[in-house]
Amino acid sequence: MTQLDDTALDLIFRQARTHNYWLDKGVPDALLRRAYDLARMGPTSANCQPMRVVFVRSKEAKAKFAPALSQGNLAKTMAAPATAIFGMDLEFYEALPRMFHDPEARSWFAGKPKVIETTAFRNATLQAAYFILAARSLGLDCGPMSGFDNAKVDSAFFAGTSIKSNFICNIGYGDPARLHPRNPRLDFDAACRIE
Amino acid sequence: MTQLDDTALDLIFRQARTHNYWLDKGVPDALLRRAYDLARMGPTSANCQPMRVVFVRSKEAKAKFAPALSQGNLAKTMAAPATAIFGMDLEFYEALPRMFHDPEARSWFAGKPKVIETTAFRNATLQAAYFILAARSLGLDCGPMSGFDNAKVDSAFFAGTSIKSNFICNIGYGDPARLHPRNPRLDFDAACRIE
């Protein structure tokens, strides 16, 4: 295969939508694992892979999560089959001796907080985007959100670790009958130029 | 279609690789436009779409670009059919009255530099990831890099604007004979947990 066909491009890009309402259809753990196993193959700088994910599923985890959510994101998140908390490990460089072919790679980051923060944020965000498209590739729908209290999520889910939350994403099978009309997108010439 | 098949998943995730050497095969402008037209459909917070892209193609643009590149990224970038400079517009919120259904959206950002910066960086990075996977969907190969001088790129390509560079990405048809062995990836249980 050298290109995706139109139905595949529709599935992951053109027809895919951000969902707020979920069908009563479960998402098996195995499918979340498959989505991660695809997403992890995407490129990161020096293969640094800073993304860490908590999938919120149980009643207990949802109860810890709820106080961190904005009012507009609460009901749909409590109703979602799963919610990914996409985080970033600010000590990602400790894995580089095992993850990257250049043994010097750890020293490019260790002790350099500004480089660490920028690298973690950029690359964990790339990985979260790969995850969203991987989930769609497997037939799942996503509802990504940044309307929540990062500090509350960090203390509820990442206390005592070097992990900080980035953004969150509901995962399930969306109800196509309850979609908003699609908002417009910037044309190529409004966002890009060729020099 | 409800899922991508294995050959499609191989093309964009499992077999796709970061390339450093390019076949002598041109990339038409129309293909860069098609990749953007797919990538722009991906979700961003409040549909904010902060990504801006310069595709460096001409001898003149490459000459402006070269002094900003790290030594290790110079030759492969000069040889690439195109290089995307993925940037972010820190005045992205000026487009929200046209781009988002809630007329209040501009006020969530205007005058709030920290929110602007975080939102622009996160969402422009998501969009760049969508672009990488969109390019692969169309049969292109990518070589993303963050080894360059952002300030030099900003002054060469974005002077007098509200756009800042994020990272860069060579685009073309990679030479499969000159790939490094693939570096490993973190297992699900090393990067994720289900609660």
Key structural traits:
globular, 39% helix, 195 residues, 8 helices, homodimer, alpha+beta, four-stranded antiparallel β-sheet
List the helices and strands and how they pair.
The structure is a homodimer of 195-residue chains.
Chain A: H1 6-14, H2 29-39, E1 51-56, H3 59-65, H4 71-79, E2 82-89, H5 96-99, H6 113-137, E3 141-145, H7 150-157, E4 163-172, H8 188-191, E5 192-194
Antiparallel strand pairs in A: 1-2, 2-4, 3-4
Explained architecture:
The structure is a homodimer of 195-residue chains. Chain A has 195 residues and is α+β, with helices and mostly antiparallel strands. In chain A, 39% of the residues lie in helices and 16% in strands. Chain A contains eight helices and five strands. In chain A, strands 1-2-4-3 form a four-stranded antiparallel beta sheet, with helices on both faces. In chain A, helix 1 (6-14) crosses helix 6 (113-137) and helix 2 (29-39) packs across helix 6. Chain A is globular, with a radius of gyration of 18 Å. At the A-B interface, helix 1, helix 2, strand 1, helix 6 and strand 3 of A face helix 1, helix 2, strand 1, helix 6 and strand 3 of B.
Low-confidence stretches of chain A: none
Strands of chain A, count:
5
Query: Largest beta sheet of chain A: what is the strand line-up?
Result: 1-2-4-3
Overall outline of chain A: globular
User: Which band does the percent of strand residues of chain A land in?
Assistant: 15-25%
So how many helices of chain A?
Answer: 8
**Rg value of chain A:** 18 Å
